Amino acid sequence: xxxxxxxxxxxxxxxxxxxxxxNMAKKFKALAEDADEHLKGRAHKADWAGVNATxxxxxxxxxxxxxxxxxxxxxxxxxxxxDTRDELxxxxxxxxxxxxxxxxxxxxxxxxxxxxxxxxxxxxxPDWASDPSGKxxxxxxxxxxxxxxxIQRILNKATESDSTAAKALxxxxxxxxxxxxxxxxxxxxxxxxxxxxxxxxxxxxxxxxHDVTNTELASLNSTLARYxxxxxxxxxxxxxxxxxxxxxxxxxxxxxxxxxxxxxRGKQAKQLQKNLGIVIGRATLSDSDxxxxxxxxxxxxGPDQLGIDDAxxxxxxxxMSNLMRFGDYDDQFLDDYGDKLLAxxxxxxxxxxxxxxxxxxxxxxxxxxxxxxxxxxxVTGFLEALGHNPDASAQFFAQPDGAGxxxxxxxxxxxxxxxxxxxxxxxxxxxxxxxxxYVAGRDSLGHALEAATTGYAxxxxxDAVKAGGDHRTGATAAVMEQMAYLYGSEDGPKMLHDQPExxxxxxxxxxxxxxxxxxxxxxxxxxxxxASDFPARYAGRAQFGNQxxxxxxxxxxxxxxxxxTVTAAQHLYTLSMLDAHPPTSDANMNHARDIMAVGAExxxxxxxxxxxQAETTYGANSEEANKALGRSADWKKLVxxxxxxxxxxxxxxxxxxAAALVIAPLAADTLTNAANTxxxxxxxxxxxxxxxxxxxxxxxxxxxxxxxGVDDLGSTYAAYVExxxxxxxxxxxxxxxxxxxxxxxxxxxxxxxxxxxxxYKD
Length: 762
Known about the structure:
Blueprint: H1 3-7, H2 12-45, H3 50-106, E1 108-114, E2 117-122, H4 141-174, H5 188-205, H6 214-226, H7 231-241, H8 243-254, H9 256-259, H10 263-284, H11 289-301, H12 316-323, H13 331-348, E3 349-350, E4 353-354, H14 378-387, H15 390-396, H16 415-423, H17 440-454, H18 462-468, H19 474-487, H20 492-498, H21 503-512, H22 514-521, H23 546-556, H24 560-580, H25 586-618, H26 623-632, H27 636-639, E5 643-645, E6 648-652, E7 661-665, H28 678-692, H29 702-721, H30 725-733, H31 736-745
Helix pairs in contact: 2-3, 3-4, 4-5, 5-7, 6-10, 7-10, 12-14, 13-14, 13-15, 14-17, 15-17, 17-19, 17-21, 21-24, 22-23, 23-25, 24-25, 25-26, 25-29, 25-31, 29-31
C-alpha cells in the first residue's frame, strides 16, 4: 500500500458502501422471512398434483433458500468492509501521528516515492555551521531509522488488512457461481485468520508424510476439526494443498508399515481420515473456478496409481473413497465421481479376481470399522459418502427418463442400481479378526439407499429426525419404487438371501414407505384404492402397484432383520391412523375399519412369509425354526425406544454398528399429546415388556407365532373401542373381528402370484 494512499485516504465513499450493504442485508432479511413464511409455507400447504407438486414446489423451496443466502452474504460483505474500514482508519491515524511526531521532535520529513516505497529525510537548518555543539543535522540517524521502521510496520499491517479483506471477499463471492453463498463472518479478522490458518496447515501437508511428527499431526487434526464448517478455510486449504498431495499425504500417514505400529500415530491417522474428509467435502461445495479445476484434477487421478511407496502404491480412487466416508460433499461432485468410478470398476472387477481386494494389495486405508472393512474397495467408501449425502444419492440412483408411474420392467431401473444389486462381483474385505464372509460394500450400498429413499443420512440421530420430520420427496420415492421392483421380483428371495448385509436397510426403507405400501394394499388389485383412508403425505408418493406391494413385503418377511423393522413400522403406523380417526363418528369408524383390515393384511404377509422361510430353511417344527420364530416375535422391543414428532417415528434398531433408525411415517398432527394416544400407550407397554423380559421367548411354534399375531391385532382393536360402547356395537355389527382375522390369516407368501413370493430354497 502506498504511503499517501493511507495518509490522505478518504474513506467516506467506503462508509457509504457499507451503509448500502447494511441496508441491503436488512432488506434481504425481510425478504427471506417473507419467502419462508409465505412463498415456501403456502407452497407446502397447497394441494398440488403433477408437475406443480414436484418441480414447482422444489423450485419455490430453492428460491426461498436463495433469499436467505443473499441475506447472509450481504451481511458478511458488510461486516468485512466495516471491519476493514475501521482498521484502515486506525492505521491512517497511526501514520499521521508518527509523521507529526517525527517532524516536531526530530525535524524529519516523510515523502511517498511511489510503488509502495517512501523516504524519511532530515530538514536543513541555516545555523548548522555556527552551532556550538558541532551538530551537522537536525536529528541523528537512529531517529530516522526508527521512524522509517515504525511507518513501514504500520503500512505492512494496513496492506495485510486490505489484501486479506479483498481475498476474503473474492472467496466469499466465488463460492456460488449462480445465486448466493451461505458464507458467514462477523468481521475481517475471522475471515483472514481462517485463510491464514489454511495456508499454515497446507505447509504441513507439503512435507514428506514420514517426516511429520505426531505433534504436528495432532495440531493438524485439531485445526481441521475446528474449521470443519468454515467455507473459506476449506477452499483455501484444498487449493493450496492440491488434489494429488491430499491423496499422497493421507496414504503416507495411513500406511501402518511407515508408522512402525505406533499407537499414537494410528490414533492420529484415524482422526485425520475423518477430519480431512470433512474439510475436503466442504471445499467441494464451492463453485469457484479454482475448485472446479481441483475437482477435474481429482477425477483424472482416480484410476491411476499415485507413484508412491506407501500403502502399496494405491490408486487415486482407493484413497479418495476412504476420505469421502465423512463429510458433506457437493452433489454433482459425488455423482460425477461415482459415474467415473463405476465405469472403471466394470472394466477391472470381474469373476475370480478383484483389482481392489486381493493378496497383492495390502494397502489398508480405512480406520473406521477396520476389522470388517479394510478400505481396499473404493466402491465401499464412495457408497458410504452417498449414505451421508441424501440428495446426491437420490440423484445417483434416479429413475431413467421415460419410466412410468410404477416400475415394472428392467429398463426402468437405474443402471448403477442394477449393476450394484445384480451384476457386480462383491468381495469380503475383512481382517482375520473380522466376520467371515461379511461384505462391507453391500452394507454401504444399503446405507446409500437408505439416504436416497428417506432423505436423511443413514446414521442420522433421533433428535435430528424429531426436528426435521418427513424428508421424502418424489425423487426419493422414485428410488424406492425401483427397490421394491428389484427385491419384490422373482429373483428377490435369492437376492435377499445372497445379500444379507442389505436386509436391515431394506427393512428400514420399507418401513419409511409403509403408508404408501398400505395404500397399494387397500384396493382390489389396482382398483378401488382409497386415498381418503391412506392420504399421500408428500408430493409424488411412491407407487408399487397392488401386486408389487404384496411381492415386496413377502420377500422382506423372509428375513429376520427386515421382518422386524417393517412390522414395527406397520404397527405404529396403524395405531397412529386409528388415533387420527377416533371412534366418535360413523365416518371415522369407516376409516378405522379399512385401516385395521389393511394393517392386518400387511402383517399377515410379513408373518406368513417369516414362518414359510423358517420352516423351509430349518424344517417345520424344528428347534431352529422355533428359535427363529421366537426371535421374530420379539419385534416390539424396537417400539420401546421410538421417538415421536413431526409426523414420523424414529425407531432405534439395536445391535447395529452405527446409529440406526427406522424413520416410519405416522398420521399427521395426531400426536400433540402422545402419552394419551394409542401410539403413546403402545410405546409404554413395549418399554415395560422389554424391561420385564429382556431376553424374550426362546422358541415359538408357527401356531404360537400366528396366535401372537392375532392377539396383537386383537389388542389394538380392544384399545380402539375401549370406553366407546356404541363403537363396539358398530364394530360387532360390521363384523370387524372376523374381517381383521381373515385379513391377517388369509394373506401370506404361499407359492402363488396372489399371495406373494415363495420362500428361498437352496
